[in-house]
Target: CDP-diacylglycerol pyrophosphatase
Amino acid sequence: MKRWLLYALALAASGPAFADAGLLERLVGGFSRDSLWKNVQQRCLVPPSPAHADCVIVDRAQGFVLYKDMIGASHYLVIPDHAMAGVDDPRVWQDGPRNAWSFGWQARDIVGKAVGRPLPDTLLGLAINARTSRSQDQLHIHLDCISDRAREFLLNGNIGTQWQDLSFNGKPMRAMLVPAEPAALPVNPFSLVRQDVLGKAADGTIADRGVFVAYVKPAAGPAGFVVVDEPVDKARGSNGHASDFLDRGCKLGRADPTDR
Model:
């Protein structure tokens, strides 16, 4: 049964049905909400050396694993080397020396290698989904190409250096630009979101949300990282599924460079 379902999901990933990425993720994770963490432990962390090809990078000094996702040839996951549920874990929002986003961004060339050609930074992105929208209870940040719609959002959103309200695929969210040239991530996006949210939250808590990060280099204006904050708001149609900004098929990355 499991093998049949994975085959069906692989077929779905190549067709229109794959548009519902949230459904796909929930189905893949439906076998067990801790299966991802078990796989990472058994394949990457317990042996004296990584025992599986999915363990692309195991960096115990920084405390992260770059793990090959089961769906999508260019899709990878940044995972801590210790148990941590996700955005609902208070440790995620604490300042510290570990920056999962920076680790993932430094490893971004792996996406181009999977596609078969070097990719510009402006076609890559990182995303973490809200607790409401995730399938696995181990923190994992998705790394892949951005989608066509995400590129349009990034180029046409007039995103400035202060948080502003925007909409993506009909869902409300906020975004801001962190200027950076060259393309080295200068902040921890978790800290950036926390500083703003806690300044407004009456109870001092950080509600369920997704976060997306990508690099922009417009013809006019500063280059830098766009950080998107997508709080879960069922009344307004926001589910915090930030990986909707990514494309597991990497259409933009596989296109002829002259088409960009």
Observations:
- Helices lie at 2-13, 21-28, 35-45, 100-106, 109-115, 148-156, 189-198, 251-254.
- The CA atoms of residues 209 and 231 lie 4 Å apart.
- Residues 2-13 form the longest helix (12 residues).
- The chain has one domain: 33-254.
